[in-house]
Amino acid sequence: MKYLTILRHAKSSWKFALLPDKERPLNERGKKAVIALGKYLSGRHIKPDAIICSPALRSVKTARGVAKAIGVSKKDIHVINGIYEADAMSLFSIIKDLDNSLGDVVLVGHEPGLSEVIKLLTGKTIEKFPTCAAYRINFNIEHWSAIKSGTGKCEFYVNPKLLEEKKTNFIQ
């Protein structure tokens, strides 16, 4: 069994409009969302073997914040250039190429690629995949390379608004 949690970076700041896209930091709302999502994932006992993320600062900061909340070491966060601006097929290739020693992985990236790869992996359409949303998928496989389109099963989908509205430890 393999597990993949797809996580969109938290809300970024536009305070410094001249910053290149990759260098935009998180805004205050984004920082709070990372804390809330981290608590949620920790409460679900999500502890991945690795976190892979885009090189964009907002993605790296999101990955580090979540890692801290769920007890994952910084050394287990891996920046992969190909995640930035990736489409579904590029993300699918990255996932299929994951090391088989990893049973549970968090992928932190960007839209629209993330919602597209969720549809590719599970067959389910996400109308809107907001910032700091998480979608956890399980696969009944032994090797990442065995993933096929539509074979993933959703364990949960959560975003900061749902956490705020429901004030619950479990959202399906």
How many domain modules?
1
Assembly type of the chains comes to single chain
CATH architecture: 3-Layer(aba) Sandwich
User: What is the fourth-level CATH superfamily?
Assistant: Phosphoglycerate mutase-like
Largest sheet: 6 strands, mixed
Number of distinct helices: 5
Order of strands, main sheet, comes to 3-2-4-1-5-6
Roughly how much helix do the residues carry, as a percent range? 25-40%
Report the strand count.
Answer: 6
Global structural class: alpha/beta
Low-confidence stretches: 168-172
State the separation between the terminal residues, measured CA to CA.
20 Å
Mean pLDDT: 93
Radius of gyration: 15 Å
Roughly what fraction of the amino acids lie in strands?
15-25%
Q: Which shape, going by the Cα principal axes?
A: globular
CATH topology: Rossmann fold
State the order of secondary-structure elements, H for helix, E for strand. EHEHEHEHEEH
CATH hierarchy class name: Alpha Beta
Question: What do you see in this structure?
Answer:
This protein has 172 residues and is an alpha/beta fold. It has one domain: Rossmann fold, CATH 3.40.50. 33% of the residues lie in helices and 19% in strands. The protein contains five helices and six strands. It has helices at residues 28-43, 57-70, 88-96, 113-122, 160-166, and strands at 2-8, 50-53, 77-79, 104-109, 134-139, 153-158. A six-stranded mixed sheet has the order 3-2-4-1-5-6, sandwiched between helices. α2 links the parallel β2 (50-53) and β3. α1 (28-43) packs parallel to α2 (57-70) and α3 crosses α4 (113-122). The two termini are 20 Å apart.
